[in-house]
Specification:
five-stranded mixed β-barrel; Rossmann fold; 3 domains; 414 residues; single chain; alpha+beta
Length: 414
């Protein structure tokens, strides 16, 4: 019999109590959600429509968490996971869910967040699928913990539901073929050099498009990615979207939305790209605008963005280093002919930035986010004073078989 942890809350269920639960939906973390007499229980790796046997391991104030023991009545959309580590590795949540259903759920997820967080009832368009559903990741970062007795144990990713335990990953089916071919050598080298590590470390494998099967393992090495006919170079350890297969459609949508100034208005002539990184959206859009300005807090990213304009013979883009809060002070474009692209980190935009954005009052705002929850939080602020109207909500599946998604929301000046 398992020993009950000292801090375990025994209400409403006992430690390791087993329950039969009907799964109703999924949480934003990709866990199955069911109820016992109205009490919510989260069960990872279960699917909507299933009846499962689950074992309680934690009770919170408003819900409980349980491990999946057995699927008693499977969903008709349950499929065989391709990865033998699925259910142990925390990297994927939906490998057991038919891909079409993953897309439908992600669409529903955005719809529910809009309704519950912001009380907004608006159409969410069907999720744009990834052209590649396997082998799409161009970057992975396996970890290992501090060597013990001169030896490294697991090299991989966090175990599902556990903050400190790693799962040993020898192959990753959502990573590119080149990365999987290089991974055994990278793992072997780390094991051979175990004595040189005084603490745990993160390894880098990044697939570079400038040479077939080239995988970069050093953060400062130059990596290249192709988006249509455009080339982008950046330091391998820096951020760049890591599903190349969907980037042409992703950037084309952003460009189309940025050009659109709203009903009965001429196309926008100017573009401001905030949180611009190494220039993905600014450069992808440049040929369709008279002038483009980008801003990014990372000085290194600005240097790469400037280099990428030269690499692609683009002369109507200018980039400046600084916090996005400062960008509009130097923008001289007429607001009524300008679009602003926002692509902030997961935490969303700063309220001060949104205040300045509203004061600048561009014709179009295109808000791109990898975290719909913070995006919708910011959307409330953007819509609060009836200065803008919601035009389009378009999710993209950059990360098949995981709970993650990108969402592009377009706003037009009223």
């Amino acid at each position: 019999m398992s020993r009950t942890p000292a801090k375990f809350n025994p209400e409403p269920f006992d430690y390791h109590q087993e329950l039969e639960i009907d799964i109703e939906s999924l949480t934003n973390l990709g866990q199955g959600l069911g109820r016992i007499d109205g009490w919510v229980v989260f069960v990872p790796f279960s699917l909507p429509g299933e009846r499962v046997l689950a074992r309680i391991f934690r009770n919170h104030k408003a819900h409980s968490e349980a491990d999946l023991i057995e699927v008693l009545q499977p969903s008709p959309h349950r499929v065989e996971a391709r990865c033998e580590l699925f259910g142990l590795c925390g990297g994927c949540q939906y490998q057991n869910y038919a891909y079409e259903q993953q897309l439908l759920w992600k669409q529903t997820q955005v719809q529910e967040l809009l309704s519950h967080m912001a009380n907004i009832e608006a159409e969410v368009l069907p999720v744009i699928p990834s052209p590649q559903q396997w082998g799409y990741r161009s970057k992975i970062t396996p970890h290992f913990q501090k060597p013990k007795d001169g030896k490294i144990s697991a090299i991989g990713f966090l175990k599902a539901g556990v903050r400190s335990q790693l799962i040993d990953v020898k192959e990753c089916p959502i990573a590119s073929d080149a990365i999987n071919q290089a991974l055994p050598k990278v793992r072997a080298r780390a094991h051979a050099e175990a004595l040189s590590y005084r603490k745990g470390a993160t390894l880098l494998l990044r697939d570079s498009a400038d040479e077939a099967d080239l995988v970069i393992t050093e953060n400062n090495e130059v990596c290249e990615e192709h988006v249509g006919d455009l080339r982008f170079q950046f330091a391998a350890g820096e951020f760049f979207q890591n599903n190349p297969s969907i980037l042409p459609a992703f950037t084309e949508h952003a460009r189309t939305e940025a050009l659109n100034a709203g009903e009965n208005r001429s196309a926008n002539r100017y573009l401001v790209d905030t949180y611009c990184g190494s220039g993905l959206f600014a450069i992808s859009c440049a040929a369709h605008f008279e002038q483009v300005s980008g801003i990014e807090i990372s000085e290194a990213a600005i240097e790469w963005a400037t280099r990428n304009t030269k690499l692609n013979d683009i002369d109507n883009c200018k980039f400046q280093q600084g916090d996005a809060l400062d960008i509009f002070a130097e923008i001289e474009y007429p607001a009524e002919q300008t679009a602003v692209i926002i692509d902030p980190p997961r935490k969303g935009s700063n309220p001060g930035f949104i205040e300045q954005l509203l004061a600048f009052a561009p014709a179009t705002i295109v808000y791109i986010s990898c975290n719909p929850a913070t995006q919708i939080r910011d959307l409330e602020l953007l819509l609060a004073n009836d200065q803008y109207q919601l035009s389009k909500i378009q999710p993209f599946d950059l990360f098949p078989h995981t709970r993650h998604l990108e969402c592009v929301i377009t706003l037009h000046k009223i």
